[in-house]
Amino acid sequence: MIKVGITGGIGSGKSTVCKVFRVLGVPVFEADSIAKQLMNTDLLLQKKLIDLFGPSVYQQDQTIDRKYLAGIVFNNPSLLGQLNEIVHPAVRKAFDEWCLTQQAPYVIHEAAILFESGFYKMMDKTITVVTDTEERVDRVVKRDHSTAELVIQRMKNQWSDKERIKLADFVIGNNDQELIIPQIVEIDKKIRAHG
Ligand code: ADP
Questions:
Q1: Domains of the chain
Q2: pLDDT profile of the chain (195 residues), mean per 10
Q3: Is 143 in the pocket of ligand 1 (CB under 6 A)?
Q4: Is the CB of 15 under 6 A from ligand 1?
Q5: By CB neighbour count within 10 A (0-12 exposed, 13-18 middle, 19+ buried), where does 54 fall?
Q6: Is the pTM of this model over 0.85?
């Protein structure tokens, strides 16, 4: 089965693009939301998180305290790296198991840090969604009721479009005046034809 990774900076429109692929019948593995779920369900992962960050990383109802965790790793690249090192193997295992249950010519792995994490090496093809920074900030401020400062801070933990484009097989432009559906249909055709 062909594995296609989709990435793009925060607010670029990855999830929106994946919705269209779903309509075309392509199964989508949302790595970021699966990672969050696994933190609440995977016992080995939970133990590792507690060993690294202390018991306060879990709330009384045993769910991860994402605000607390984000506060710890926010400005600490070393701890963010350690967090990723713990979480990524669990996500990888979940993805491999999920792939075995899918029946489609190809599947999509959607992740904000597909390239940064090295996950792209497991993919046959990669797609990056590109949108101007100002547009992305505006969209995320609206979507998450966040502030421009916080969004820009999160962007700093991600690669630039330039770096992503260099490694991607396909680029989807998602600025205001660009239509994503024709771009997606074209890519879908190419993947189905050539793998
Ligand atoms: P990502 O998954 O990359 O963070 P989303 O797909 O959630 O980005 O898109 C960010 C926000 O922008 C969402 O609220 C989405 O509905 C909106 N959005 C995405 N693409 C467009 C577009 N072409 N025009 C206007 N709004 C868009």
A1: 1-27+106-195 (3.40.50.300), 33-101 (3.40.50.300)
A2: 97 98 98 95 96 95 92 88 94 97 97 94 98 97 95 90 98 96 98 85
A3: yes
A4: yes
A5: exposed
A6: yes
